[in-house]
Amino acid sequence: MKVELDRRRAVLLGLALGDAFGAPVAGWPPADISAFFGRYAALPKEWPAEARGLPVERRKRMGPLGLHGAVTQQALSLINVTQSDPGWCGRGFADWLIEGFARDAWRGCDLHFMAAVHGLRKGRDHRGAGTRFAGGTPAARVAPLGALYADQENRLCDVVYESTLITHGDIRAAAGAHAVAIVTADLLAGLSPPEIRKHLADRVRAGEARWRPKATWAFCRAGAGRIPDAIETLFCAPLGSDEMVRSAVKAVAESTWESGDGALQANTDHVLLAPLHAMGMALRDQVSPDECLAAVVRNGAAASTAGAICGALLGARFGSGWMTPSRLSDQERLGQYAEAVSTGDGGLESRAQFMEAEAEWTRRLGVFGEEMVAERRTGRPRPEPVPS
């Protein structure tokens, strides 16, 4: 029982650590990461002095090392809504998103997420607010749902689809998020990676079949089948090394890639790339969790998205023994959420407390970026946690 509870707890901790680990190199090409950081095998303790020589735009996006970002914020919101009375409510999640915008709590969010939230603020029905983009952000925030609804397959599917379509109105985004949630639940149930790989595509297809007819939700259904087909193709390929996984993921994506989808890179913020890359790495037969996570985030681009997915799945598979949660800026508070995921008992902060804490971290992030641009410092001690 202790091992099971630890692995459930490690889902949220792994998500937050992967998010924080990927944040310093998010948007960077892999060649720039290796040139600046070397191998980038762990989260640095401070920004190197050479950071003052980086372009202003890159320094502007720097933050306190160990600070969790957008995907963790959204995962915490999902956890809180599911643990509230009377439980999950799509309209309730939408209200969290709106208030977070009004309170300047959200940070580092993609344009598609913010466009959806803006529509919600203008009164758009949450069942049709999602932008028509198959991004990877929803897949990066849903792993805790796989722990909370591990033994409720249809309920898990519905909560994942609803929470995804509120911000990303594309069946591909929802199917990719559903895949991550399924893998999380299966790992916690003790299934082996080969067992999960064998049946995952069919289970994702079943989720699409359940949701395609739902007329009360407005979303793009044109890409139905692409994600389960991609998963099936990926897991038929040999995945014995990091490079084999990256090559297989890019080969799968190329067959349906459209010019408007962005650069075709293993960690691109598209459900065909960053989430598949993270899942493919975490579900290899032989894996060292810390090395696996580092290999994923070293690919830059949407490194926080890929890192959050991979970290969460590795947590579900291996527990927390390999993690260093002390590197998280808000360790105590994130630990409380991890306990809620582990036990399902709730007892979390109120929405007002959440907004206050996250708005303060977002303010600190902005101050840090301004100071880096002004070249008044190149490193900064890890901030003290925001009081509960």
The count of domains is 1
**End-to-end C-alpha gap:** 30 Å
Radius of gyration equals 19 Å
CATH architecture: Orthogonal Bundle
CATH topology: the name is: ADP-ribosylglycohydrolase fold
Q: What does the largest sheet look like?
A: none
Count the E strands.
Answer: 0
Counting helices, strands and paired strands, the structural category is mainly alpha
- The CATH class designation is Mainly Alpha
What does it look like?
There is one protein chain. This protein has 388 residues and is mostly helical. It has a single domain (2-47, 67-373), classed as Orthogonal Bundle (ADP-ribosylglycohydrolase fold). 58% of the residues lie in helices and 0% in strands. It has helices spanning 2-22, 30-37, 56-60, 70-83, 90-102, 111-121, 137-141, 143-148, 153-165, 171-188, 193-211, 226-234, 242-254, 274-282, 289-297, 303-318, 331-343, 351-373. The longest helix is centred in the C-terminal third of the chain and has 23 residues, at 351-373.
Summarize the structure.
The protein has about 400 residues and is mostly helical. The protein has helices spanning about 1-20, 30-35, 55-60, 70-85, 90-100, 110-120, 135-140, 145-150, 155-165, 170-190, 195-210, 225-235, 240-255, 275-280, 290-295, 305-320, 330-345, 350-375. Helix 4 (about 70-85) crosses helix 5, helix 9 (about 155-165) runs antiparallel to helix 10 and helix 10 (about 170-190) runs parallel beside helix 16.
